[in-house]
Write a structure and sequence with these properties.
The chain has 144 residues and is mainly β. The chain has one domain. The protein is built from 3 helices and 9 strands, in the order αββαβββαββββ. The longest helix has 6 residues.
Length: 144
């Protein structure tokens, strides 16, 4: 599937997703993101419904590249914590000449890390989502 299709399959896309780990296999050309995805209902008055998350793995196959910009030096990037992301759109000219001329597959995205004021850039042929946990609130033990 494309990154757009993956986003559209989720109630909130990857907005406010909490990445706990990223791994890359350069031989197999695969990048894997371990992420808590926000699946809650923004319009709910019930915080248990509104703030629901679910652990998942997003896998990018046919990896073209993965690049993480250095954090802005005044942000608390050395704190041991997940990084909260939002989709910053497809990789295009606004990110500079070097990124704009690299090959881009169906899963070419810039993911903004607010707590670092920086981006993760990833591009590959396809992506998929696998749920690895049950719905829960961040910071709580999963149920089920």
């Amino acid at each position: 599937m494309t990154f757009e299709e993956l986003e559209n399959s989720l109630p909130n896309g990857v907005h406010d997703g909490e990445i706990s780990g990223i791994s890359v296999d350069y031989v197999l050309r695969v990048a894997t993101f371990e992420i808590d995805l926000w699946i809650g209902d923004l319009n709910s008055k019930d915080p248990v419904v509104r703030e629901r998350y679910r652990k998942a793995t997003i896998t990018i196959r046919g990896l073209d590249f993965l690049a993480i910009e250095p954090p802005h030096p005044v942000y608390p990037y050395t704190e041991p914590d997940t990084v909260c992301i939002s989709n910053n759109g497809p990789i295009d000219d606004r990110y500079g000449e070097k990124l704009s001329v690299l090959p881009k597959g169906n899963c070419s995205q810039a993911l903004y890390i607010g707590s670092w004021n920086t981006c993760i850039f990833v591009s590959g042929e396809s992506c998929d989502l696998k749920w690895t946990g049950e719905p829960h609130l961040l910071g709580e033990t999963e149920t089920g």
